[in-house]
Structure formats: structure tokens, C-alpha cells
Amino acid sequence: MSHDFDCAVLIGRFQPFHLGHAVLLAEALRRAPQVMVVLGSAHRARDAKNPFTWQERAAMIAATLPEADAGRVRFVPVRDYYDDARWTAAVQAGIAGDTPSRRVALIGHEKDASSYYLQRFPDWTLVRMPLQGELDATGVRQIHLGLDEPAAADALLTTLVPHPVAAYLKGWRALPAYAQLCAEHAALIENRKRWGSGPFVTVDAVVEVAGHVLLVERKHMPGQGLWALPGGFLDGRERLLQGAIRELREETGLALFDSTLHAALRGVAVFDHPDRSLRGRTITHAHHFGIAMERLPEVAGSDDAADARWVPIAELAAMESRFFEDHFHILDHFLQLTG
What we know:
This protein is an alpha/beta fold. It folds into two domains: 7-176, 3-Layer(aba) Sandwich (Rossmann fold), CATH 3.40.50; 200-335, Nucleoside Triphosphate Pyrophosphohydrolase (Alpha-Beta Complex). Helices cover 35% and strands 23% of the residues. Strands 6, 7, 8, 9, 10, 11 and 12 form a seven-stranded mixed sheet that branches. A hairpin with an 8-residue loop joins strand 7 (212-218) and strand 8 (227-228). It starts with 6 loop residues before the first strand and ends with a helix. The mean pLDDT is 94.
């Protein structure tokens, strides 16, 4: 069988892999002898929008492939950098590291504004595919996490995802994570009914002391039990720095004077990616404090924090999959954790 390209690339989160994705994958297999499936949102904690690890998504997709095609497909996990240039470079490096191909096809369809990433690879040939009706992964997740009657969910899912994926999802419900994600999904729906979908303004604090950084364990959904930066929503008449210090004290009990924290402020960065938070459009201002102390101040979780803890910076990279939303990447911005 002759092919138009040496390699075809398919990029997505596939949370989960549905029949529309299957059409794109079939086209990629038709166009090239080798297919690279880029699995976005890799290495992050499970949440209602990203319930499946990249390994689980790879297993789902692989289960749909006939034996003749299985060896032609490779999976490339790529984390969410919330930085277009870094993300693009990571995708390109993942593809180049596995194939020296010169004729590369990028298979995709322009669903909405989130599909702008298709334009970031000018050296590849974009093969545009039509939308497959109204099918999208958001609707599939809502069925999987939101229906009270499993039998009804199973019957509906079999019309939306390949049969091996439907079987995978049914078995996946036995995992301990399923019940918590269903509860988080319901909590997010109630949260949006009460507060809307933004935009919201929040503040976060990256506090660095003696090679450690101060983290809190989230007490409430979304992200219950995950590690996060001390922070929260800005009050109506607060300045940003004032709000960051207030949230820092409320959640950790850090007993340092305002003047000490003002003098220790190393930088402020805005994180405004539209998809950074499940709660809606949330723009945060992260404040980096570098405090010159040899001993770690006492802290204790309070308010919205179940725990507060000083964590060695050297241990943060191994904790990536246990962080709330993009907080690992906020730390990465200030501390260069991923290189």
C-alpha cells in the first residue's frame, strides 16, 4: 500500500477516545505507514476534565487497533505547559525523537478556538478532516461521570465510543478514583450554577525558604487531597499583593510581618490560559517570595487547607501528578523544575 506521507501525527487529549477520534486515527493510518498519537495533558493529576492518565488513554486507543495496525502506532505523552512555544517544542521533539521523517501529515479538524494549535506546525502538512457531528469528549465525560444509572450510561456510551473503549470505561469504574471524580463533577456543576464561569481573579503565593517551598493540601473539591500553592480569590477592595499575603496567612498560619514578605518579593507572573482551571475562566497572579532564613518557619493548614507543609524543591518534579490544576507549572515557571 502506498502512502502520501512518511508519518502522520494526531494530537489530542482523548479524554476519552471516541468515535470521532477513531475516524481521525483511521485517516492517519491510511495516509502514512507510521502514526504518532500525541497524548496531551500528560503527567497531571486526575480531575473531572482529565480523568484518565496518559497510559490509560494509550491503552484505550491501542485496544481499538487491529493487530496489523498496532505496530504502526506510537504514543507521545506531552504535558500541559500553558505556554504555546514550550508546548510546540515538546511536541516537535517527541515526534523527531522517534522518526527522522521529512513528510509529516498533521491530521485534525478545527472544532473551535481551542484548535488553534493546528497552525503551530508550519513544516507539517495539515490534513483537515470534517467534524463528526456533535460528538465531543466533554459530552462523553458528562455521561461517564454524571449518570446515576450505570446500565443507562453503558448503553449510551456504546453509541459514542468504540466497543473496546466502552468495555474499558465500564471496567475503569471499579477504580477508587471513579467515585471521587463523579463527586467532583457534580460539585463543579453546582459551583457554576452558583458563581458562573468567570472571569475570576485569584492570587497565589510561591514561598521559598532554605531550598523548600510551602505547599497546602486542598481540603475541598475541586482538587480535594491534591497539593497546591497557598492562594484564593481576590477580595473586592484588595490589591494583588495584599490578597496574596492574606491568603498565605489564612491557609498556612505563616507568621511573618508584611514588611518581611514585601522585601522578599522576587517576582509576579500572570497565568491566564483559558483552560487552566475547571471552575471557569480564572486569571491568577502568582507572587514569588524568596525568604532568607536558615530555619523553616512553623506552618499549619487552616481555612481551605487540610495541611500545610514545607517540601524540598528537589522533590517537586516527582510530585507533578499530585498537583492541583496548573500549580506545578506555576512552580516550574519560577523554579525551572522541568528544564
